[in-house]
Amino acid sequence: MTERYDLAVIGGGIHGAGVAQAAAAHGYSVLVLEQTALAAGTSSRSSKLIHGGLRYLESGHFKLVRECLQERALLLTLAPDLVRMRSFYLPLYRHTRRSPWQIRIGLSLYTLLAGLAKDTLFRSVPRREWEGLDGLNTDDLRAVYCYPDAQTDDAALTHAVMRSALSLGARLEAPARIQQAECGDDGVTLHYHDSQPRQCQVRVLVNAAGPWANDVLRRVRPSPPHCTVDLVQGTHILVPGQLRRGIYYLEAPRDRRAVFVMPWRDATLVGTTETVYRGDPAQVRPLPAEIDYLWETLAHYFPQHRQDERQLLDSFAGLRVLPARPGAPFSRSRETILLPDREHRPRVLTIYGGKLTAYRATAAAVMTRLLPSLPDRTPIADTRSLPLHPA
Ligand SMILES: Cc1cc2nc3c(=O)[nH]c(=O)nc-3n(C[C@H](O)[C@H](O)[C@H](O)COP(=O)(O)OP(=O)(O)OC[C@H]3O[C@@H](n4cnc5c(N)ncnc54)[C@H](O)[C@@H]3O)c2cc1C
């Protein structure tokens, strides 16, 4: 007998886990298919920040920043063991692209969008404290600002959200790969492969395959609309050395892009880069030129690393999914795109892009788009109040 579910979700990254949790909380039956392992894709290769994205204010993405800051506040209460506030240090040198007054305006707006609570306030770090900033280069330093934002373990968060979904009745198959999907009048017939070929019937299919989203759409008949996207790789390096004060938000000396230097599991994580990637998403790897760029940035700001042998503890690359457009990836929109196969009662919905931080809000928006295609069910929980625990 063919198995039936209200929803099938393709992808066990943060978005797949988030949609599974939201759908199960609504009372729907959910099957999640993940081709390798939970969080094996982008959701274990991010910068691991739960943040509003200070730099998105410059491009006028106020709504995105506000939503992310609201989600940050919620995650701090739902997942206090997984999401923690950190002090972020923003040093301004004589050659920094932005002036102290621009930064003050940006940080004031950021604080305002975060709700002006006591734990969202920023400050200027007095000169007498600069020596204590983990060996930060003070040549030509004009000012240092300190503001609060949050850090997580992206893979652990994804696992926690999926555990929450499973506890509400969702089912996960991994490894299991979608082979083909046929849309009919009353839903989608899904062919997938775990240890053997299988088939099931679902009312709606959520494509949360991240960088593989268009690959999944190529398997759907009739062919749904798709977005033309660029995959933009972001590399991080993990190097020895501990930062005691917090996270540093720096400008790469070579091209003035934002680079974070962060404490991570008794070592220091530095990222990220932006390199347009063409090829199989599963094969993305850090490039030697990216590793050089990150070392150069680290050594510029933390001169103690100039003398160190370049000991690399680890490096990893993840893929951003950004709307295809000419010009530098840095300036492209980071808004999440939800693309249905049809406006009225969609059968397939694809998630393009998005932020780890906003996964819950994205999942809620996905459910709102899909409700007309689903029967009425009695909700059994609300994701705004479901605690998330580490394993
Ligand atoms: C370098 C970098 C840094 C980032 N830093 C941050 C940050 O600090 N803060 C923040 O909020 N956001 C950040 N982001 C964004 C965030 O990480 C991503 O938006 C998020 O992880 C995307 O999750 P996802 O579930 O859409 O995709 P993924 O995590 O890639 O999951 C997709 C899953 O689908 C599976 N899949 C693919 N094809 C199939 C198939 N045919 N059948 C079954 N399964 C399939 C894959 O195996 C994969 O596990 C960053 C992104 C990048 C690239």
Structure report:
By secondary structure, the protein is an alpha/beta fold. The protein folds into three domains: 167 residues, 3-Layer(bba) Sandwich (FAD/NAD(P)-binding domain); 75 residues, no CATH class; 95 residues, 2-Layer Sandwich (D-Amino Acid Oxidase, Chain A, domain 2), CATH 3.30.9.10. The chain contains eight helices and 19 strands. Strands 3, 4, 5, 6, 12, 13, 14, 15, 16 and 17 form a ten-stranded mixed β-sheet that branches. Strands 1, 2, 7, 8, 9, 10, 11, 18 and 19 form a nine-stranded mixed β-sheet that branches. A hairpin with a 2-residue loop joins β14 and β15. α1 packs across α8. The longest helix has 17 residues. It is globular, with a radius of gyration of 22 Å. It starts with a strand and ends in a 21-residue tail after the last helix. The structure holds flavin-adenine dinucleotide (FAD).
Topology (SSEs and partners):
Layout (H helix, E strand, L loop, with lengths): L2 E8 L3 H12 L4 E4 L15 E2 L11 H17 L4 E11 L6 H14 L9 E2 L16 E12 L1 H14 L3 E3 L3 E8 L2 E7 L3 E11 L5 H5 L2 E2 L7 E11 L7 E5 L6 E7 L2 E5 L3 E3 L10 H14 L2 H4 L6 E10 L13 E4 L7 E5 L6 H12 L21
Parallel strand pairs: 1-2, 1-10, 2-7, 4-13, 8-11, 10-19
Antiparallel strand pairs: 3-6, 4-6, 5-6, 8-9, 9-10, 12-15, 12-16, 12-17, 13-14, 14-15, 18-19
Helix pairs in contact: 1-4, 1-8
The structure holds flavin-adenine dinucleotide.
